[in-house]
Amino acid sequence: MALSELYTKYNRVWIPDEEHVWKSAEILRDFKPGDDTLQLQLEDGTMLYSLDTSSPQLPHLRNPDILVGENDLTALSYLHEPAVLHNLKVRFVESKIIYTYCGIILVAVNPYKQLHIYGDAVIHAYSGQNMGDMDPHIFAVAEEAYKQMARNNKNQSIIVSGESGAGKTVSARYAMRYFAMVSKSGSKTHVEDKVLASNPITEAIGNAKTTRNDNSSRFGKYTEISFDRRYQIIGANMRTYLLEKSRVVSQSESERNYHIFYQMCACADQPEFKSLRLCEADEFRYTSMGGETAIEGVDDRKDMEETRRTFSLLGERHRSFLSLCRPTSRCLPLCRPTSLCRSTSDPHIAAFCDLLRVSPDGVTRWLCHRRFVMVAETVVKPVTSKRAVNARDALAKQIYAHLFDCVIQKINAALQVPGKQHSFIGVLDIYGFETFDINSFEQFCINYANEKLQQQFNLHVFKLEQEEYMKEDIPWTLIDFYDNQPVIDLIEAKMGILDLLDEECLFPQGTDQNWLQKLYNYLADNPLFEKPRMSNEAFIIQHFADKVEYQCWGFLEKNRDTLYEELIDTMRTSKFPLLANFFLEEEPGGVGSKGIKVRPARPGVKPTNKNLRTTSVCILSMYVTLFFFQFRSSLYLLMETLNATTPHYVRCIKPNEEKMPFEYDSKRVVQQLRACGVLETIHISAQSYPSRWTYIEFYSRYSILMSQQELVLTDKKQTCRTVLQRLIQDSNQYKFGRTKIFFRAGQVAYLEKLRLDRLRGACVTIQKHVRGWSHRRTFLRMREAAIILQQYVRGQRRIRCETGKRLRGYGWAAVVIQRYWRGHLTRQIFRMVRSSSIIIQAFTRGWIARKRYKKVLCCVLSEIDLILLYFSSCVSVNLAHVCNCPMFADLKPRGVVVNMIPNMAAQLLFMCVRHADYLNDGAKLKSLMNAIISGVKKVITVTDFELLSFWLSNMYHMLNCLKQYSGEEEFMKQNSPRQKKNCLQNFDLSEHRQIFSDLAIRIYHQFISVMEKALMPMIVPGMLEHESLQGISSMKPTGFRKRSSSIYEDQEIYTISSLLQQLSLYHSTMSQHGMEEGLVRQAVKQTFFLVGAATLNNILLRKDMCSCRKGMQIRCNISYLEEWLKEKDLVQGTSAMETLKPLCQAAWLLQVNKTTDDDAKEIIEQCSELNTVQIVKILNSYTPIDDFEKRVAPSFVRKVQGLLQDREGGSSQLMLDTQYRFQVTFPFTPSSQALELLQLPSSLRLGFITRI
């Protein structure tokens, strides 16, 4: 179906709007080829949308509501800018979800609010999951990178970018925290903690308050986390890019300098900082230029304590930290004098020189004077006040830049631990594309770096798209996408912007205006370069994201990064080693260094003409470092690193300028989407087949459109092909892949329209028949009443009564005859069936008995011999040999043997104890008990469920025997006289009872852990993903990030039946081993808690599971679990169903109405086991499956939140702790079994055991 054919009545489109960027409108009349207008209905009235008749450009179609709010933007049928913008808004504003996939990109919208989605429980929930199995999250991206590194043995990179204040630093920090958590090593170096500890330090020296962000990173950072062959962290390395040095000496209104300055000033009164001679931050010009020295909600003094703590965590001494603070603090007094005086009497200059241990004369002289080298002589002249201030600022910037690099080096040194790196994951936290009212050198560098990153991103997306087609065996067609290579050439090619900038910097008299004129001359013909109409001091570049106008002033000075050599020489003479090392000469040829000394290459040659000797050539002695050359070199190195890794992209979005929580400014968001490559990804996907469904998704969703003949086909893949070919005639609108169906734009929306029409038609048919039945029933009742009235009126009722008497007489005789005849036939049949049943039962029981007897003999010979071989040496004579017997870990009776001798091992062990007590042999008793304890300890570490069950049951029974025969009154109340007589006489074993109790507890916890490990993979597929209610499908498209479970993958598919079978297996094993009923109930309760907690946690982290239909499926599966408890007679005494209450209430919450005030009150009353965070999360995540369902209104969610505020106590955690263990108890249950009457079957060949 052609796209233009979808512009029909009732469909909706997007039209441009100045305020909201895009506005939705409904089509009032079908569009036909040749129409010059499109009649639309807006919220505020109708309008005619004019079209260009020569080439009509129809407005973008709007996706059906059922597709809006999806986890992945590529799941949308129509892929374009308004669809992306609207989908993000619905998720962010209505569902309070900040993460969304866009193909390979994770879009993260800053909520400006603390969320409960970053706890350790959430990390464990995402660990091991495939991409797309859970809701979008930064942890999902980190897990994918970690998994690909381990699976493909290839290095990975996570590229986090965005505007200042978009949340880049926080996202990068959470990614590193995830790696530190999931790859925890056993090393004593605690390198994971050191990696996380580096963040507060780098934020202190590299972050500052700006107008857009209170904690803005003013540098780019690439953190390379190293892993060994076991994929555990063994170290890290950090590289930084483009530190904003100008901020040290200049800040805009309402901005601050770097945090470290304010942290030191806040601690100026502390003894260790008094030597730095600091005072309040507002007394220094460098820290008060922005007008604000404090940030609301930030305690600089407390932050300094955190900085010092993390610095010590990296292994640095306190003295080392103070030595780094000295040059930092000395930047501040430089700015205090209003004008630089030419003597050493200025107290601030003196303080600066004293702390940094440099010559006051040299500093004062070369801040205020310059040396000019001429042909015949060298002249020192004073400079203007402006130049002196520039020199001061240059020195401060240089000192801080060196300090920053020094701290990074110390961090890297601390993060290096012994061990060889096997692979690494790099986390790049870098600035996004920037455009301001006034753009200067810093914005030019940032946007140039983003051009390089965007080029790498485009090529990677294009490559992945091509690989997807090849994997699905679909012919690859060339896709037209934006290539920004011309912009990069404009900047870095020969005679480009950078080349001309470097050339102008080499001239001592070079100026910004001269350089700009060269740009106008050489680049005038380039279509990506423009000269502003109203300015001769700026130039315009057409970047991939937008046009940006740059002011040329300051480009040369910032690129030169000039510091005069006389001042450098003065710094080199410092007696403070750290400062002197800062200004050591760099070795030539170093990577990233380009220093140009502008001074005579050799002594000047005296002119032969004396007249010419009076002419002098003046050369200023200075050291020029071309900043952009260094930046470009480090950027090339970064690109090489990224190209050698598998990249993962996180794009951070700033939703509004006011930093209001969950407020969405469409204009600001769309600017960032254009700038960060999200829309380019959409553009590439939309070029060919953007919508992609697996065959099982298509079959489940559109089975309603299939005929009966198509539904009976066993090959679902072929059924999908047949149905699609019938519904969409144009085969070019879709392609069949190996595991997926690829659709052109709009085709899924067309299928949704057909599905909705079919459902609407079915609803009409049902309504028609129900209404007809209702009217017919009413009519028949009225007719019957009328007939009765007529009978009375006409006198017919009496006649019918007389006739009825005669008929009833005949009828009664017939009934009597029938009764006797049917009874005779039934008795005959019963006798025949009973006789046959008895014969069948006799033969069957005999066959079963013979089979069981044979099985008993086999099992006894192979396994029980091991037990009795052990006891043969301890019961008769050699009890001391018990301690050397290693068979405890191998004892595991199976099959019907356990039914014959439950807990026999415990009984025989206790008989040995009684024998040692009878002999009054303490040494033998001690040896025996030690042997038992050491043997049982071996069982604790095994993962065999049957072995653990067997020994848990026997240890519990052994503990009961020690109590029952201890001689203590409280345990002898139910003993028989014979049992009382046989109690222990010589030894008190109460201490050993405690030891056995502890061992039993440890076995129990291992027993539960083994059960949970086996059940965990079954819980989510069985309880959530498997649709036990046939005909109620809740499946929807998932976009690029497909779920891992598919009928075409070679993996076991778990259902609720699989879960129940596993539970039954556990229960039967425990029963066979004679486990006490109370212990079985405790294990079942713990297991049911795991099922409920894991299922609820998955619901809270998966938006696709929050629907009415899914609630019905969950409630059905819970009823299966309840039936299982009833079948096993475990309902009473286990409280197992109590542990499922939170899950039951969550399922109820998904199904209940969520509209009125009464609904809100009912939710508060019914959901008593769910806390506020969980209820709000489920309401926000509720997702309709069909157009007949409605989303939960934000006003309703706020209403529920308001009512929940009155709740007292309760947890604020989003997730339930699946590792929680109920306290296990071992209640005393005396046995009526007299041990001296224990009979061992002769078939077990235990004749060597003698009765004493």
From TrEMBL:
GO terms for molecular function: actin filament binding; ATP binding; microfilament motor activity. Residues 930-1206 form the Dilute domain. SUPFAM superfamilies: P-loop containing nucleoside triphosphate hydrolases. SMART domains: DIL, IQ, MYSc. ATP binds at G162, E163, S164, G165, A166, G167, K168, T169. This is Myosin VC. Residues 635-657 are annotated as: Actin-binding. One of its GO terms (cellular component) is cytoplasm. PANTHER family: MYOSIN, UNCONVENTIONAL MYOSIN-VC. InterPro entries: Dilute_dom, IQ_motif_EF-hand-BS, Kinesin_motor_dom_sf, Myosin_head_motor_dom-like, MYSc_Myo5, P-loop_NTPase. Belongs to the TRAFAC class myosin-kinesin ATPase superfamily. Myosin family. Pfam families: DIL (PF01843), IQ (PF00612), Myosin_head (PF00063). GO terms for biological process: actin filament organization.
